[in-house]
């Protein structure tokens, strides 16, 4: 009987979710970057950039023992993309980097703890596999869902992610 490893399971799920996320990002209109559905909401471009920046966080969860938000030398997201092409290029690059880090890891590494903190205050400390799942993958899926609402409100056809979307069912 063959059993999958944590790493193999994450790779399979990651590939599926990265494909879906890219399909959503492809539809984000740069010319409407400042759109926000509510004053408390991020702009469309801030949200799309955040989704891309979360890829670096997932890689950090794999490669480091922790991250202190007060550390001025800590990992930071790259500059805000200034075009749609740049956003997609960074998504592709960061996706490849994350995939390589996951391929280079093993189940033992995935069970080691990752501590996210601000100085002495621990935000969370969990096994790396849990950190990737909760603060990485689930967090990304959450914000991707928000992006699909922005697309809907802008009357941009929403791609189906786990089956056909309403746009695909009605022929667009």
Automatic annotation (TrEMBL):
Ranges of residues in domain DinB-like: 14-147
Highest taxon listed in the record's lineage: Bacteria
SUPFAM superfamilies named in the record: DinB/YfiT-like putative metalloenzymes
Span of the signal peptide: none
Pfam families in the record: DinB_2
InterPro entries listed in its UniProt record: DinB-like, DinB/YfiT-like
Name of the molecule in the record: DinB family protein
Organism listed in the record: Hymenobacter koreensis
Lineage of origin: Bacteria, Pseudomonadati, Bacteroidota, Cytophagia, Cytophagales
């Amino acid at each position: 009987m063959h059993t999958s490893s944590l790493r193999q399971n994450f790779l399979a799920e990651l590939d599926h979710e990265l494909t879906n996320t890219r399909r959503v990002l492809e539809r984000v209109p740069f010319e409407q970057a400042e759109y926000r559905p509510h004053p408390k909401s991020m702009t469309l471009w801030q949200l799309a950039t955040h989704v891309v920046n979360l890829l670096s966080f997932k890689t950090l969860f794999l490669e480091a023992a922790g991250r202190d938000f007060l550390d001025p030398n800590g990992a930071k997201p790259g500059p805000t993309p200034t075009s749609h092409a740049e956003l997609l290029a960074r998504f592709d690059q960061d996706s490849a980097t994350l995939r390589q880090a996951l391929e280079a890891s093993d189940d033992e590494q995935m069970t080691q703890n990752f501590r996210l903190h601000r100085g002495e205050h621990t935000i969370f400390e969990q096994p790396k596999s849990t950190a990737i799942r909760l603060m990485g993958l689930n967090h990304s899926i959450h914000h991707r869902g928000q992006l699909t609402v922005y697309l809907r409100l802008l009357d941009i056809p929403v791609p189906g992610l786990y089956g056909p979307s309403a746009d695909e069912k009605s022929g667009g």
